[in-house]
Amino acid sequence: MASVNVPSTWVADGHLPPRCARHGTVETQRVKRRFYSTPPWWLIILVPFTLLLVLIIALAIRKTVEGPLPACEACANDRRRFVTRVWVGWGVAFALLVLVAAVGSPLVGLLWLLVQLVVLVETFRGDSYRVRGKVSADGQWVELVGADEHFVREIVNALDAYASAAQVPMLRPPNDSQPPSAIDPRTPVTDPTVVYQRTPTILPGR
After folding, report:
1. How far apart are CA 180 and CA 157, in angstroms?
2. For the chain, how long is the longest CA-to-CA vector?
3. Residue 141: closest CA among 112, 168, 176
4. Does the pTM exceed 0.85?
5. 63, 139 Cβ separation under 8 angstroms
């Protein structure tokens, strides 16, 4: 395949030979195409600044709720095992990198790349080993994902008690079809997702 420079006005006006541009055979139709100029290389410099601007805006508009979440010794053990796995993984990746520099084997280099990718993904999976949370747009609710059924039931009971004591309508999270206070505490909890209202009096004695 060859290349040729054609005046842009020829392309725009269709002043081209009656021959297929790709196969060289006699043309049977004309297909409208659109061509673009190549962006200048220095636009790459703006990419980090664009990503930084998006990050700054995201951090500025997000809602943050910080508070102590009940945990146990099993949670601490899970966290320690996760941190240990990550550090061991990075150690293995570094050792393979040193081996690649010493041996120069493509097979070892491929193994290092695979291990490095796995370790990198695992490093950012810390929240998958604990209860995760997402704040609602109005900042009034925190959706907890991966909570225990007993914890869910106690939250539901606490919401009922709080609504009754304060003589307020049933607490209802945004975009939720069934308010937590309408759930019968005696029924088994099958959904591990729970939402609760931020209030210091939500749990008795707390």
Report:
1. 9
2. 88
3. 176
4. no
5. yes
